[in-house]
Write a structure and sequence with these properties.
Shape: globular
Radius of gyration: 18 Å
Oligomer: single chain
Bound molecules: magnesium ion
Order of helices and strands: EEHEEEEEEEEEEEEEEEEEEEEEEEEEE
Strand content: over 45%
Largest sheet: 5 strands, antiparallel
Length: 308
């Protein structure tokens, strides 16, 4: 059962965070019963939020106009992260097929990438599409480590990398190869930086639970430098994140959703009763923050719009 809306609670570290909040905004609990809610993506034309229930192998949907929650697909190839391409078509990471795909309502689908140098990916986790149409995604092993969220298998590639798919040729290149378990990712607004979360603490004692920032030359399709640790998660791990129109990063964590300025200053936290995995801005004005958190989907209204 979903719970009644209640006043949202926040940790405020800088007054600037208050300006991003809607006074008296409620935390709405929209859906429950998930086993690992992840990968939310908002489709404006449908006023619908899709998200993954990874361990139950389901794709879920929430219709803003009717408030109805429904299964959009089951089984769902153990889908995880989602985004939209430049035409507004949904792009999905699938642990089950170990690929990144594009799909349309009605069942048509197209594989964007399923191999690197002839070897199958581990289990693509999260994905972004740049303004030139190139597709950038992370490939940790969570979907092949066990049968919990995919199909257990040995890694063919032997490492967990970030890849780029060329929009013209479809060629796949490994652009970041120095992470333990790359996870969520997003470009800065000017697309000169790529932020990538590393959740490697899941596999390495005292391992990474931070976001690193890399320099990108989008025209050349290359990561040219950087890689410094940009922020370390206060508790738990950062998984997925999105930017607002001013370039702030809203990222998941153990306590809820943390909001950072582009220079890495933590402004505040939207508190959730469950561990958050990923977020997405939605609503016709993109001022609704959706939060996929363990068993549930939550939302609050905020005073800043999400970036496209
Ligand atoms: Mg993820």
């Amino acid at each position: 059962m979903t719970r009644p809306a209640e006043p949202a609670s926040f940790d405020v570290y800088h007054d600037r965070f208050v300006d991003l909040l809607v006074p008296g905004a409620d935390l709405e609990h929209l859906a429950d019963g998930c086993t690992w809610a992840e990968g939310p993506v908002y489709v404006e034309g449908e006023q619908t939020l899709y998200w993954s229930d990874v361990r139950s192998n389901r794709l879920m949907r929430f219709d803003e106009r009717t408030g109805v929650v429904a299964e959009a697909a089951r089984p769902a190839n153990f889908c995880n992260g989602h985004t939209l391409d430049r035409e507004g078509v949904i792009v999905a990471c699938e642990h089950g097929t170990r690929s990144v795909v594009r799909w349309w309502p009605g069942g048509r689908r197209e594989t964007i990438a399923d191999r690197f140098e002839g070897k199958r990916f581990n289990s693509p986790n999260d994905v972004v599409v740049a303004s030139d149409g190139s597709v950038w995604f992370t490939d940790p092993t969570y979907g092949i480590d066990s049968n919990a969220e995919g199909y257990q298998a040995e890694s063919e590639i032997g490492s967990s990398n970030v890849y780029r798919v060329d929009p013209a040729s479809g060629a796949v290149t490994a652009v970041i190869t120095d992470m333990v378990r790359p996870n969520g990712l997003a470009f800065s607004l000017d697309e000169r930086s790529l932020y990538v979360a590393d959740t490697g603490v899941s596999h390495v004692e005292d391992g990474p639970r931070h976001i690193r920032r890399y320099d990108v030359d989008l025209g050349a399709g290359l990561v040219t430098g950087g890689g410094e640790v940009w922020a370390t998660c206060p508790e738990g791990v950062f998984d997925g994140f999105r930017l607002d129109v001013d370039g702030r990063i809203w990222t998941s964590g153990l306590q809820g959703v943390h909001c950072y300025e582009p220079d890495g200053t933590l402004l505040g936290t939207v508190r959730l009763p469950e561990v958050c995995a990923n977020v997405e801005f939605g609503g016709p004005d993109r001022r609704t923050l959706y939060m996929a958190a363990n068993t549930s989907l939550y939302r609050i209204r905020v005073a800043v719009r999400g970036a496209r």
